[in-house]
From TrEMBL:
Catalytic reaction annotation: (R)-4'-phosphopantothenate + L-cysteine + CTP = N-[(R)-4-phosphopantothenoyl]-L-cysteine + CMP + diphosphate + H(+); N-[(R)-4-phosphopantothenoyl]-L-cysteine + H(+) = (R)-4'-phosphopantetheine + CO2
UniProt keyword Magnesium, yes or no: yes
Record-given protein name: Coenzyme A biosynthesis bifunctional protein CoaBC
GO molecular function, one term: phosphopantothenoylcysteine decarboxylase activity
Keywords: Decarboxylase, Flavoprotein, FMN, Ligase, Lyase, Magnesium, Metal-binding, Multifunctional enzyme
EC number of this enzyme: 4.1.1.36, 6.3.2.5
Residues of the full protein shown: 181 to 408 of 413
Residue ranges annotated for the DNA/pantothenate metabolism flavoprotein C-terminal domain, each copy included: 10-221
Function: Catalyzes two steps in the biosynthesis of coenzyme A. In the first step cysteine is conjugated to 4'-phosphopantothenate to form 4-phosphopantothenoylcysteine, in the latter compound is decarboxylated to form 4'-phosphopantotheine. Catalyzes two sequential steps in the biosynthesis of coenzyme A. In the first step cysteine is conjugated to 4'-phosphopantothenate to form 4-phosphopantothenoylcysteine. In the second step the latter compound is decarboxylated to form 4'-phosphopantotheine.
């Protein structure tokens, strides 16, 4: 259905969405990243805008057009994404973390291209863990005080229900959304598992924008208890 016919259930609310992968540089031309397409996050940004929200979309490196009327902040690394997110959520009522944030970054970033040294031995790479953006936001004063409703996503390759329940509790968030496998990077369809304090509910396989609209309705229905 077209945008203007969507119920304005988030009218005037500031919604922050992270989307896509992050890119963790190793040297000026190489880095580690992942296969996240950003489509789910961009669909949620669009659905939130269509629901009347003011949307900030914090995007890792993806090849997707910005939904009209959405403020987009492009970032590369998890550290950049954390900085942009902490800034944006200061005025937000809802934070939806769909980004596939790299869990680790190279411990050192080489200013120049790492060259083969002729020995035939590959370099040994060291990594450090990236800060958990969702956890940091969810443990912040605004989320703890009930002014910021946080939603997480989980991509699991096995035991989705158990992992999703555990992840929701570990992150201390009211709602966690699981991608029902198999991992569907870049596809236009998906099915989702909603996990909250009451239990588990499935949103059956549908186009990502349809699922995003359903998710926005689910979030809006929960937010009045949080937003004062
Ligand atoms: N997330 C985040 N910052 C990170 C890692 C994850 O904000 N450094 C967010 C993701 O955007 C997602 C949620 O946390 O909303 C769950 O991400 P996921 O990778 O499934 O979980 P992790 O906590 O990283 O645990 P693991 O990858 O080991 O399953
Ligand atoms: Ca992870």
């Amino acid at each position: 259905i077209v945008a203007q016919f969507q119920p304005k259930v988030l009218a005037g609310q500031h919604v922050v969405v992270t989307a896509g992968p992050t890119f963790e540089a190793l040297d000026p031309i190489r880095g580690i990243t992942n296969h996240s397409s950003g489509k789910m996050g961009f669909s949620i940004a669009r659905a939130a805008r269509d629901a009347g929200a003011e949307v900030t979309l914090i995007a890792g490196p993806v090849h997707l057009p910005t939904p009209r009327g959405v403020r987009r902040v492009d970032v590369k690394s998890a550290q950049d994404m954390l900085g942009a997110t902490l800034q944006a959520v200061q005025t937000a009522a809802i934070f939806v973390a769909t980004a596939a944030v790299a869990d680790w970054r190279p411990a050192t970033h080489s200013e120049h291209k790492i060259k083969k040294d002729g020995s035939g031995k590959p370099p040994v790479l060291h990594f450090v863990e990236n800060e958990d953006i969702l956890l940091t936001v969810a443990q912040g004063a605004r989320a703890k005080g009930g002014d910021l409703f946080c939603v997480g996503f989980a991509a699991e390759s096995e035991n989705l229900v158990e992992h999703a329940k555990a992840k929701r509790e570990r992150k201390g968030i009211p709602l966690l959304v699981g991608n029902i496998g198999p991992l569907t990077f870049g596809q236009d369809h998906n099915s989702l598992l909603l996990v909250d304090a009451k239990g588990v509910r499935e949103l059956p396989r549908a186009p990502k924008l349809t699922l995003a609209r359903e998710l926005v309705a689910e979030i809006a229905a929960r937010v009045p208890e949080y937003v004062r």
